[in-house]
Write a structure and sequence with these properties.
Elements: E1 7-15, H1 20-38, E2 43-51, E3 54-62, H2 71-82, E4 97-103, H3 107-113, E5 127-134, H4 143-160, E6 167-180, E7 183-196, H5 203-218, E8 228-231, H6 241-244, E9 247-248, H7 253-256, H8 277-294, E10 300-307, E11 316-320, H9 331-340, H10 348-355, H11 365-368, H12 387-394
Parallel strand pairs: 3-4, 7-8
Antiparallel strand pairs: 1-6, 2-3, 2-9, 5-10, 6-7, 10-11
Helix pairs in contact: 1-2, 8-10
Length: about 400
């Protein structure tokens, strides 16, 4: 496909819940969920690594009742739910070796976060976090990533329902989307690599995968006659999951966020309690950016917020709307609004309280650990309940 003078192609990928890094993320977040259920003030920085027949937990956890939390049982339940239950594949819920090297949180970190009043809670670390939104899809997320996630969720459903029993949990998708004048207009290339059983590694099954993907992508309006498909392009994908490759918490940060469409501060999310602003402030920045776009102040909005460890207010904001600001808004006026803290309060305790991050209701942190942390309405940072306030502030009719 050829683009015009104002066109380009942008590519994003997704990885499934059975990808080794996502297995690790889900175990870390499942342990976080258990800790927050036992103690909403828990301090958790849980890392997981997985490999052939082994799961290892390391990190720092200080939580009331943590001695009663069976991390091995949690890890096995996560792996079982994903679908790794066959010992002969050299990674299965009931047979992997489990090792635990978790210890308490550093008192030096705790000193910077804990305060006499929660409102004065300091940031759990220094760093910069980004939030992003674009009106190119209904979820206000980038199209290549949205549809890459959706493809893998579709195949996971078919696998777990038994409709395609020869599929195994590990998979990747990748979409290259043509943009013209900033809008997605066509899918140029679709890549799907999906683990199968040995018996399922047939050309007929690969054609079936392509047909299912084509049917789904046709609903996006972006599938064109010239769209190229590559399904298991090496010809075989049987050895996969933690047996085929090691996995580690926090190694899929672009998949977790905006598929490379926006900047990233470098901090991973999974396994961290909300006192770690590299997680909670990134959620809040997405919340603010989404509301700004939903209010019609810009077609695209990226927010950078930065913190110093132990300090209870952000040290800076930077807003980019990529030339799409409208209705009287500018990058500078949006920054001024954010810094004022009246519509969006980026202080660590305030944003945690605003999104109710210590007591999740109707969602779990484990739910964030596959198919992206953004773009799904079940998460509180996806609500657009500040639109009316923003329109009033910027006098949008």
């Amino acid at each position: 496909m050829k683009t015009n003078a104002h066109g380009h192609v942008f590519t994003s990928e997704s990885v499934s819940e059975g990808h080794p890094d996502k297995v690790a993320d889900q175990i870390s977040d499942a342990i976080l969920d258990a800790c927050l259920k036992a103690d909403p003030d828990a301090r958790v920085a849980c890392e997981t690594t997985v490999g052939p027949d082994v799961v290892v937990n390391v990190g720092e956890i200080t939580a009331k009742g943590f001695e009663n939390i069976d991390t091995a049982k949690i890890a096995r339940a996560v792996v079982r739910d994903i679908g790794y239950t066959v010992p002969d594949e050299h990674f299965a819920a009931d047979t992997f070796e489990y090792l635990n090297y978790i210890h308490g949180q550093s008192p030096d970190i705790a000193r910077g976060v804990n305060r006499r009043t929660k409102a004065k809670q300091g940031a759990g670390d220094q760093g910069m976090m980004f939030g992003y939104a674009t009106n190119e899809t209904p979820s206000l997320m980038p199209a290549p990533l949205v549809y890459s996630h959706a493809l893998l969720k579709l195949f996971a459903g078919l696998r777990k329902s038994g409709k395609l029993p020869w599929l195994r949990p590990d998979s990747k998708s990748q979409l290259s989307v043509v943009y013209e004048d900033g809008r997605p207009v066509a899918i140029e290339t679709a890549v799907i690599s999906h683990q199968t059983t040995k018996e399922g590694a047939t050309k007929a099954n690969y054609r079936l995968i392509e047909d299912i993907a084509r049917d789904y992508l046709s609903t996006t309006g972006l599938l064109k006659p010239g769209t190229k498909f590559y399904v298991n392009p090496t010809g075989k994908f049987v050895v996969g999951g933690p047996c085929g490759d090691s996995g580690l918490t926090g190694r899929k940060i672009i998949v977790d966020t905006y598929g490379g469409m926006a900047s990233h501060g470098g901090g991973a999310f999974s396994g961290k309690d909300p006192s770690k602003v590299d997680r909670s402030a990134a959620y809040y920045a997405r919340y603010a950016a989404k509301n700004i776009v939903a209010a019609g102040l810009a077609d695209r909005c990226q927010i950078q917020v930065a913190y110093a460890i132990g300090v209870d207010k952000p040290v800076s904001f930077c807003v980019k709307t990529f030339g799409t600001a409208k209705n009287g808004a500018t990058n500078e006026s949006i920054e001024k609004m954010l810094a004022g803290g009246k519509i969006f309060d980026f202080r660590p305790y305030a944003l945690i309280d605003d999104l109710k991050l210590l007591k999740p209701k109707g969602w779990r942190y484990q739910d964030t650990a596959a198919y992206g942390h953004f773009g799904r309405d079940c998460f509180p940072w996806e609500k657009t309940d500040r639109v009316a306030e923003l329109k009033a502030r910027f006098k949008v009719k």
